[in-house]
Amino acid sequence: MGLDPKDIKYVVISHAHGDHIGGAEILQAKYNAQVVMGGPDWDTVQSYPNRFKSMAPKKNITATDGMKLTLGDTTLNIWLTPGHTPGTLSYTFTAYDRGQPVHVVYSGGTSYNFPTVPAEIGIPQLDVYMASQKHIAEQAAATNATVLLSNHSSYDHANYFNRMFAGRGDGPHPYELGTDVVQRYFQVMQSCAAAQKILLEKEVAEGK
Ligand SMILES: [Zn+2]
Description:
The structure is a single chain. By secondary structure, the protein is α/β, with parallel strands linked by helices. It has a domain at 93-208. The protein is built from 7 helices and 8 strands; from the N terminus they run βααβαβββββαβααα. It has helices spanning 18-21, 24-31, 39-47, 119-142, 153-156, 158-165, 179-205, and strands spanning 10-12, 34-38, 61-63, 68-71, 74-80, 89-97, 100-107, 147-150. The strands form 2 sheets. Strands 4-5-6-7-8 form a 5-stranded mixed sheet. It has a 3-stranded parallel sheet with strand order 1-2-3. Helix 4 (119-142) packs antiparallel against helix 7. The structure holds zinc ion (ZN). Zinc ion binds next to loops. Residues 15, 17, 84 line the site of zinc ion.
């Protein structure tokens, strides 16, 4: 893409799972990039530095809710969205398509892959997850986000959109879904967690 890794100033990690933190240590050591991560996920990396080989960057910057990182004319707004991991980060930012501003929301932890059983652990975790989805949905609404990116290309359909892009012609950018679709995505995420919570509550009520 013609980009030089020496120009990387920040590496912003959505969460400290192996498939998202891989390479961060190398970018930090080789190019002096500053690594940004949520506090609890820094704790995880520091507690288990050998958990994933070459994926334990040294602690640089701990993200806070509403933190802004500005480079040139681009500002990344960082939001704390615990759930998928305790330190998961999501973002809002503005990109430009053919000179026009396009507002983007990036959801850093789409699936709730934490233990949902036993219920006394699962129910509060699902509550945290739902609150985070609501939080980032509000930020997406406040910025009129029409593009949704997520932490896997199968979640946000980037794998399809990238292929569609080649045939775009004069049409709209395939990533632009509109504000309603973006908001419905976050509603579905909250509804799925709510359904899971009901299931656990039912098990508790039935004494399982
Ligand atoms: Zn993950």
